[in-house]
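Q: Please design a sequence for this.
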């Protein structure tokens, strides 16, 4: 039995998807269905996304979450942060790029105690209607910052021989169709596409 642990914010949690429950939940059902067909390893996926969380929260909880959900047969760890970290609130960035990098590296260090299979998940682009706009939550986000933070994630992945899941590029062309009305979270279609990209990744852990 292999465990898959998905750390992240509301996009990992699947907010705004009242139909499928988000990309991680789609993967969860997929893995269960494949196992029930009787030809695969058992892969248990945990959705550990928390709405509004930044990498500050990740660093605090990853040691406890990992210790509580450690499979002797192996773990796969997904880390998807940045959409809240890069946001400006009251003129201050929630987690600046330097701290973001430090936090991600700290989390990886912790994750490596339990697994070598670590995936960094890109930040999605924002709709043009919220790019550089202060939204009701008081947060201001820009697509320029997304590029900066994604580059940090890419560099960390290369330097540490980790995997990088590039949802950003997949969304870029059709983001206005794939994002929900809030311009930040995917809609059902967007989450469905994320799951399609991620299925081949989990597929290899299902094989005997």
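A: Design:
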């Amino acid at each position: 039995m292999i465990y898959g642990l998905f750390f992240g914010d509301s996009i990992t949690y699947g907010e705004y998807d009242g139909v499928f429950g988000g990309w991680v939940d789609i993967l969860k059902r997929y893995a269960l269905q494949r196992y029930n067909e009787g030809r695969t390893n058992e892969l248990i996926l945990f959705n550990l996304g928390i709405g509004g969380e930044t990498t500050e929260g990740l660093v605090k909880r990853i040691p406890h979450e990992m210790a509580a959900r450690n499979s002797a047969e192996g773990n796969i760890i997904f880390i998807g942060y940045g959409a809240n970290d890069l946001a400006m609130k009251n003129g201050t960035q929630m987690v600046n790029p330097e701290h973001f990098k430090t936090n991600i590296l700290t989390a990886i260090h912790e994750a490596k105690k339990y697994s070598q299979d670590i995936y960094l998940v890109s930040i999605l682009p924002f709709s043009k209607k919220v790019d550089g706009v202060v939204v009701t939550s008081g947060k201001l986000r820009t697509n320029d910052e997304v590029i900066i933070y994604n580059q940090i994630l890419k560099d960390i992945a290369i330097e540490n021989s980790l995997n990088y899941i590039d949802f950003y590029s997949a969304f870029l062309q059709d983001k206005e169709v794939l994002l929900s009305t809030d311009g930040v979270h995917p809609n059902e279609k967007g989450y469905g596409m994320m799951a399609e990209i991620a299925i081949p990744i989990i597929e290899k852990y299902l094989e005997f």
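Q: Thanks. Anything notable?
A: The chain has a mean pLDDT of 96. The chain has eight helices and nine strands.
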